[in-house]
Each structure stands twice: as structure tokens, then as C-alpha cells.
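Supplementary Note 3. Input sequence used for the single-chain structure prediction.
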Amino acid sequence: MASNSFQGKVVLITGGTKGIGLAVAQRVSAAGANVVLNYGRDSAAAEAALASLPGKGGSSERALVIQADASSPSQMRDLVDKAVSKFGRIDIVVANAGIFPAYTFDNVTEAIFDSTFALNVKGPFFLTQAAAPHIPSGGRVIFISSGVARSSGVAPPYALYASTKGAVEQLTRVLAKDLGRKGITVNAVAPGPTDTELFHEGKSEAMVKGIASQSPFNRLGSPSEIAEVIAFVAGPESSWVSGQIIGANGASFV
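The predicted structure, written as C-alpha cells, is reproduced below.
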């Protein structure tokens, strides 16, 4: 059973209507949080996500769903403005929106490079910049990295994706020093292979099984398992944890 450690907290989650983002929203909503869920294009998924929030989480009083391009600094500023207009502040930012491209080195175009860094790095940076003035002392910023950022066994088609997550990890370490002066912690959670719609895109069943077998548990992680790690980092128990990259990978990348 979820504790009440998020009672009355305002949690903003980009990419919050599917996969890990939705699991986080459900977890913190069940523990009393007000949630702001950002999504990119899928309005049907957004409506379903809102309806899935436990208790009164799906009510207009405790939840807000906002369409915005998470790669756009101006739209991230607008997202923050709407969240603050609704709830008065933001306690926790979970910059979860991202893209997981797989291109061979020769096939990466400038447009692909720019769009990948825009969503995975630029968006989280400017979201945090916009939100920080509205986050009180004791607040949290949580980025999402990946086990591929530290593994030398990553397949070549994931070089671009791994590069963006390397940038996110260094951003985590440096911003922790900057925002720490305001009493805000900054951390990143780095999932391993996780059973989400995004992970399954472009992969055969045999490929998914092969990836799952890299863990001694012989399975993928679940979004709810990652959400529990994020909930810990977002909660009061983690007040002395900052500037850290916390792996949640079932020993897949060790």
C-alpha cells in the first residue's frame, strides 16, 4: 500500500500518460499527490491515463493533463505556467519524456540527431529552468537516464540514444550543485530494459527475449518497479541523495 508521503505535493511528469511516466503518476496519485501529466500527441491515451489514476486522482481537482511538445522550450515554459496556475507551485519534476531511436551510424541524419537531443536533453533542461523558480526548498528534480549510458556492451545502433543519456547524467551531477543551494535535489533514475510500448517498438519477440535473458532474472523490468525507485527519489526519505544516477536494471548492466 502506498504511503501518504506525497499528500498534497504537486508532481509534474512529462511523457506522463504511458509506460514509466504513467506508472509514476499512478504511484504518487495513490499516495495523495496532485499530478500534472504532459503528453505529446495521443489524446486517447491521455484520457485513459487520467481515468486510471487511483482514488480521486482522476478528478479535475487533483489532476491536470496538458498537451505540449516536450522538446520545445517555449512549450515547456507554457506547461509550467499552466501547472502553477492550477496548483500554485511544483514540488517534484519528473522529466520522463524521451525517444529511443536505433539508427546505424551511417544513417543518422542531422535532423535525427537534432530531434533526439531536443527531446532527450534540451527539453528536460529548459523544463527544469522554467520550473525551478516555482519549486520550494525540499523539492525534487528527477531525470531519466538509461543503463546504456554506462555499458560498453551497447549495440552500435544505440550510439545516439546513449549519447543523449550521457548528457543527462552529467546535467544531473552539475545541476545538483546549482539547485542544491535552493534546497532542491537533482537525481536521475537509469532503468534497464523495461516492458513499455516504447521499448517494444521495432523489436521482434525473439529480440525482446534475448534482451530479457541478459538479466539473471530472465525478464524485463516493469514500469511499476521503475516507478517505485522514482517514488523513493521523489520522497522525503531521499533528502540526502542528490547528484546521483540510480540504476534500476535487474543486473542487466553491471
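The beta strands are 10-14, 34-39, 63-67, 92-95, 140-144, 185-191, 245-248. The mean pLDDT is 93.
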